Amino acid sequence: MSEMKIAADVIAAENEARAQALDAEYAALGETLARRGIEIDNITDKVSEFSVAVPSWGVGTGGTRFARFPGGGEPRGIFDKLDDCAVIHQLTRTTPTVSLHIPWDKADPKELKAKGEALGLGFDAMNSNTFSDAVGQSQSYKYGSLSHTDAATRAQAIEHNLECIEIGNAIGSKALTVWIGDGSNFPGQSHFTRQFERYLASMAEIYKALPDDWRLFSEHKMYEPAFYSTVVQDWGTNYLIANTLGPKAFCLVDLGHHAPNTNIEMIVARLIQFGKLGGFHFNDSKYGDDDLDAGAIDPYRLFLVFNELVDAEHRGVDGFHPAHMIDQSHNVTDPIESLMASANEIRRAYAQALLVDRAALEGYQDENDALMASETLKRAYRTDVEPILAQARRRAGGAIDPIATYRASGYRKKVTMERPASVSGGGGIV
Ligand code: LRH
Ligand code: MN
Ligand code: MN
């Protein structure tokens, strides 16, 4: 039995107050879906099996571009972060794993593993950091890391990634995500081809050290912190990387890392078609890499991404098991609340995508009936699946209403008393 951060009787009392309404709403939705030939419990079971990893860096207040306004009870380090992640999972039953970032989360792997086990949490993909300088490192990443012109700097960046694999191996992770900020700020500053050759050679070294049952995810981003050119700037370059490195290399799609209005769901479809979709960093975006809460700006786009994933599942695409991770930064909300709401939004998009009548859609596509094809997607999207999500949580021992239950539990107040006040200031991740 894992350590419970929220008392079971709080969850029970909060659920008790909402159980009758949920049962009525679930029964009504069940009737609606039955008329469409869908058995509600089948959808609820599928939703229950769907999980998404929480980023360790998401539970602290972020948004460090101009200033940071920390809330009460900010986690002091990785062990506090894991406690907060456990709360998210206990109430949502959606986030059983945490994605670590090294060196921010560096600790004795044995202690990390023991803490995870005590809380009932596992570890998802490891993330390396060669986009900022760590205290005491000998070479600076100011002019790049894995693609740096200097061999010693590249060697240091490679070595750091190997260490991430080693730590990950000791705690049960099965993947490494590499995002780098390498690029240039002026035309002419870097030779595009030579820079990319150096990157590929460095990544090949990392790939060589990957255990057989691991996957290597490269994450593209259009710009920032390099503002003229970025080495891994789009999914085309990313595909070339994964293809060049080999069968354990895949592309990671962070929803906020594209030009505005990019058709992300189509990128997802292409990567699925060519067997190189590794996984996601879910978040939402209005202008750039905003790291806003999943579904906060454009929930229909999130649904359309899931429509591609469910379509691939439906077609039985070979070896299809993308990693689901959240990558967000919370500036004006309690990060625990934002992450619970986001996990819920991600499951919502999945549940809605499960409701798409795929046979009808295929028929409309074949007949070139654009309007009815669009309506088929909209019909699924317009369905309020909240009773399914709430039922899935309740059946797994979570909360019918995670945010209300969290507020009722007084967890934030408790950790605010235990953890010293965090200082505000700038600087941090981009
Ligand atoms: C930088 C970034 C990227 C990484 C994360 C740790 O753009 O947001 O998405 O995954 O930092
Ligand atoms: Mn990301
Ligand atoms: Mn990002």
Automatic annotation (TrEMBL):
Please name the SUPFAM superfamilies in this protein's record: Xylose isomerase-like
Pfam families in the cross-refs: AP_endonuc_2
Xylose isomerase-like TIM barrel domain residues: 100-291
As one GO molecular function, the record gives: isomerase activity
Keywords, sorted A to Z = Isomerase, Manganese, Metal-binding
Recorded hits in InterPro entries, A to Z, give:
L-rhamnose_isomerase (IPR050337), L_rhamnose_iso (IPR013451), Xyl_isomerase-like_sf (IPR036237), Xyl_isomerase-like_TIM-brl (IPR013022)
| This protein's name | L-rhamnose catabolism isomerase
Supply the gene name: rhaI
